[in-house]
Amino acid sequence: MRQQARGRSSWYIWEWLSSTEVNVLSKDAALKKFGFDIDLFFNSNVFKASVPRFVKVVKAALAWDVPQKIKAEEEAGQNPLQFKRYVRAIEDSL
């Protein structure tokens, strides 16, 4: 999740309470409640192998899908300003 006021992108551990409510857990709370060790996860081979693949897919979408979407919105007479803001946030987070 991106938090503009606090800086760059951040990771949060979300516990869904309902379809519209979430509780953001600390690392310790996630470990106690779910047995999920976030530090162990970030240092795992699974995470390390997934990051380059994720970045590759996102960059491909930014290079092809995003310009196509912006073009389609402009041709439809819509202003893609909000969409462009989200794209910049994604680019910044990479």
Topology:
Elements: E1 13-16, E2 22-25, H1 27-34, H2 38-42, H3 45-75, H4 81-93
Antiparallel strand pairs: 1-2
Notes on the protein architecture:
There is one protein chain. Helix content is 61%, strand content 9%. It contains 4 helices and 2 strands, in the order ββαααα. It is mainly alpha-helical.
> Would you tell me the structural class of the helices and strands?
mainly alpha
Compute the CA-based radius of gyration: 17 Å
Q: What's the helix count?
A: 4
Shape: extended
Secondary structure: number of strands: 2
Strand content: 5-15%
First CA to last CA: what distance? 13 Å
Low-confidence stretches: none
Order of helices and strands: EEHHHH
What count of domains describes the coordinates? 2
What is the makeup of the main sheet?
A: 2 strands, antiparallel
Q: How confident overall, as mean pLDDT?
A: 86
Strand arrangement, major sheet = 1-2
Helix content: 55-70%
Write out key terms for the chains shown:
94 residues, two-stranded antiparallel ribbon, 61% helix, mainly alpha
Characterize this entry briefly:
The chain contains four helices and two strands. With 94 residues, the chain is mainly α.
